[in-house]
Fold this protein.
Amino acid sequence: MFHVNIATYIVLVNIFSVFFGYYGGMDPVIHSIAGGVMEIALNRPERLNALDEATLESLSLALERAEDETVRAVLLRGEGRAFCAGQDLHEAAEGELDYQEHLARYNRVVLQIRRLAKPVVAAVHGVAAGAGMALALAADLRVLGRETRLTTAFARIALVPDSGMTYTLPRSVGWGRAFELLALSPDLDAEEAQRYGLANLVVDEDLVFEEARGLAARLAEGPTRVYGLIKHALDESASLGLEEVLELEARLQKRAGEGADHREGVRAFLEKRAPRFRGR
Ligand code: LHQ
């Protein structure tokens, strides 16, 4: 009887560990912090990191944590062979999604990335499609692999662009190209993406994470508070006239000028040494 119980116990423990290992280990977004960089990875490789409700909620939570002052730069990437294939079409096919309501989750994430007062680097390998491409465009810098493809994808399934794509895309590629990329949804290779200003850096496919980590680490050692102000200035300038932009720049310059990093930058210049910025 005792042996039966032990055996039953072992079987139950195994079932539980498989169950919790599966669900616990399948967190749709994983994140870690090291050296001032928060690395956030979409973690649904079997679906090319397609975004469903749970993934978007989890991504939003990770981005909330990125506001912590110990985080000075963020790296966004995907597990498996792709960055992100956009909305999970299995979830969409279930027919229970109210798209307008669901988009509130995307909108929150996009605004979190844009309003995060520190740089966000997207390490885009494999493919980025639909809202996955929009996420990459919401980041401040993009590192692509030579084999990486970008496609807007929305019109392929008769949808309009979302997740800020009609804002970010024409600002990079220009008005004339934007309609073409949104309506015809070609596969853009990394070289074209770079020509259109959509890629900051194109590297060998297997070096995407390494190069993006290097870039994020370098940013994390920079004047990160000022990076946040640059980001804010660029975003605001999109909807302002020249006079307002000039006033905004003056206000932000006052804030930058009062920062410890500015004092350190000037001191380092005069002392002919490298500055040690602390993001203050
Ligand atoms: C996927 C997906 C995917 C699920 C690949 N979902 N499984 C917002 C809110 C509300 C409503 C709707 O939309 C939006 C925003 C959007 O993002 S709309 C745009 C949605 N995304 C797409 O339309 C892209 C769909 N995917 C593709 O076109 C291709 O998979 C790409 C070009 C991304 C990659 O192609 P391949 O490298 O040839 O890979 P694959 O097609 O063989 O995919 C591999 C697996 O991943 C496959 O599963 P399986 O079980 O057959 O191996 C796909 O079903 C799955 N997968 N994308 N979005």
